[in-house]
Amino acid sequence: YIFMMIKLVILLVVAFVLPTFLGKIITEIAGIGNEYKTSYLLGIITFLALFYLWIQPDVKNMQSLSDTAHHVMKCFEVLAAVTIVGFLVLVNKYKKKKHVIWKEILIVCVVSFLLAGVSVCVKPNVADYTKEMVNTMYMQDTLFNVDPLTGKELADLDAEEQDYLQEFAESPFSVLYAVMVFQTKIIPAKLVSIILPFLIFPFYVCIYLSWGEYLFQTDKGKQIFFEIVVWGLLVMGLLQKWDKIFDIFGNPWNGETLFFLGILPYSVLTFLKMEDCIVEKKYFCVLFIIANCFSAKLMYQYGIFVELFVSIVFLIIVFLRRWYHNGNSYTTA
Known about the structure:
Helix content is about 75%, strand content about 0%. The chain is mostly helical. Helix 2 (about 35-60) packs across helix 12, helix 9 runs antiparallel to helix 10 (about 220-240) and helix 12 (about 280-300) packs antiparallel against helix 13. Residues about 330-333 have low confidence and may be disordered.
C-alpha cells in the first residue's frame, strides 16, 4: 500500500503540478493571463503535443513499449527539469501577488472527484477498447504490432484488421497510458478504469468552468447554472446508449472523447479570448495552433485537420472583422 500511495502521489504531481508550472511559465512569457486554470490547461495541451512528437519515431519504427517508455522518460526528465528551474525563476514574482485561488482549486478538486467517482461506478462503454490496447502493449511489450482483440500479430492480420490497428497507431493516445503502466507497474485495467478518471476529469472541469467565466464574466449565478446544464446534458449518457465520443462518464480516457469534449472546446475558447490581441500575440497564437494540432492528432485520427479548420476559420473571421471596422472608420473620417 505504501508503494501504491507513492505511485499515486507521483502521478498526481505529473498530472497536475508540472503541467501547471509549465503553463505558468508560458503564460508569463506570452503575457496572456494569470489564472491557474489557464496555466493548467495550456500546460496539458503543451505536454500532449510534446508527447506526440516524442513517440512518433518509435511508433513509425514499431519499437517495443519498453524502449518507447525509456525514450519518453528521458525527454520527460529534461522537460521536468526545465519546468522546475523556470518556475523557480518566477517564484519571486509569485510572492508579490496576493491573489488567493485556493477556494477555486478546492471547487475544481471536489467537482472533479465527484464526477470521477460517478465514472468509476458506471459500466464502461463497450465500444471503447483502450483497456485492451494498453494491456496488449504492456503484456506483449509492443506498440501497435498486435491486435488487442484477437491477439494476432500484424503479419497475421487481414487487410481490414490491419486498417483497424492502423487507426490506433494514427491516434496513439493509448501509448501515453501504456507508458504510465510500464513505469508504475499498475495493472492496466485498474489504471484505466479507476485511476485515469481522477486524473482526467479536472481537465474537463477546468475547460467548462473557463467557458462559464468567459460567457458570464462575474455573474456567479449564471456560471453555476451553465455548469449544471452542461454536466446535466453529459449525464444523459448514463441514461442512454451514447456513442463513445460523447460518453464522458463511460470512457473519459478515450482519445476521441478527450478531443471533442476537451481539446476542441478549449481551443475555441482560447481563440475567442485572443480575438482582441491576436496581432500583439501573433507568435503565441501560431505556437498555440501548432500545439493544439499535435495534441489533437494524439487523441483523434483526424484531429489535426479539425483544429486546422477551426484555426483558419477563426483567422478569416478576425481578418474580416478588422477589415470591416477599419473600412467603416475611414468612411466616417
